[in-house]
Amino acid sequence: MNESTAVTPSRLLRRAEVLARVGMAKSTLYLRISAGKFPKPVHLGSSVRWVESEIDSWIQDQMEQRDQAGETGGMDGGIADAA
């Protein structure tokens, strides 16, 4: 195989690894998959795995959306002040 056709292997992540990376509950993960807002898993027999590069890209997209929206991550996230 020459260099132009070489494929870089991608690691497959278990659900627990995906949940730890993205910090969401299992139910939220599957809701986002159903809504088309999260990468779909790869089915391997009775188990599922996610392509690591797709999860990394999704995380990067979330950071870019945050940056474009000007989110600061502070207390001004839409919560009204209790006066």
Strand order of the largest sheet: 1-3-2
CATH architecture: Orthogonal Bundle
Mean pLDDT, as a whole number?
A: 86
Helix content estimate: 40-55%
Assign an overall shape. Answer: globular
The level 1 CATH classification is: Mainly Alpha
The name CATH uses for the topology is Recoverin, domain 1
| Class by alpha and beta content | alpha+beta
Whole-Å distance between the termini? Answer: 69 Å
| Poorly predicted runs of 5 or more residues | 77-83
Quaternary? single chain
- Please tell me how large the radius of gyration is: 17 Å
Continuous helix count: 3
List the helices and strands and how they pair.
Elements: E1 12-13, H1 15-22, H2 26-34, E2 42-44, E3 47-51, H3 52-69
Please explain how this structure is put together:
The chain is α+β, with helices and mostly antiparallel strands and 83 residues long. It has a single domain (11-69), classed as Recoverin, domain 1, CATH 1.10.238.160. The chain has 3 helices and 3 strands; from the N terminus they run E-H-H-E-E-H. A 3-stranded antiparallel beta sheet has the order 1-3-2. It is globular, with a radius of gyration of 17 Å. The chain starts with 11 loop residues before the first strand and ends in a 14-residue tail after the last helix.
Brief overview:
Helix content is 42%, strand content 12%. With 83 residues, the chain is α+β, with helices and mostly antiparallel strands.
